[in-house]
Design goal:
By secondary structure, the chain is an alpha+beta fold. The chain contains 4 helices and 4 strands. A hairpin with a 5-residue loop joins strand 2 and strand 3. The protein is globular.
Length: about 130
């Protein structure tokens, strides 16, 4: 199995966003939990996702959700790590890509070790 990578999926909408809400929502749910929306425009939606495989495999896997009448075109690509935007650090695309690469490098074991969750022991008062 190949390693995980960050993939940017861009979708061009054929109609106004309020008329494509059902299709965009279905695509977002199909992509899963490691997917973050970014770069929404008048007729454009984009998602940054962390996946196994290549952009070609992503498009093949989600073709049923991408080949609908509401979507005019779509692209999947691997974004570069050092990315800049017009609005700097408040721009959603560079921020989401930076966070996705950070999550990819951290891995689940490091996230667990740095968590601030404390487990409080539960016991009855009269037990030794």
């Amino acid at each position: 199995m190949s390693s995980k990578t960050v993939i940017l999926l861009q979708v061009i909408l054929k109609y106004e966003p309020e008329h494509c809400l059902r299709e965009v929502t279905a695509l977002r749910k199909a992509l899963g939990a490691d997917t973050y929306p970014c770069m929404q425009g008048k007729r454009h939606a984009a998602f940054v996702t962390i996946r196994y495989g290549t952009p070609t495999e992503l498009v093949e896997r989600f073709r049923n959700w991408l080949e609908v009448d509401a979507f005019e075109n779509y692209w999947a690509l691997i974004p570069l790590k050092p990315m800049a935007g017009k609005y700097g650090s408040i721009d959603s695309l560079p921020s989401r890509i930076k966070f996705a690469y950070a999550a990819l490098q951290a891995g689940p074991a490091k996230n667990f070790a740095q968590s601030k969750i404390f487990v409080k022991e539960r016991y009855r008062k009269r037990t030794p």
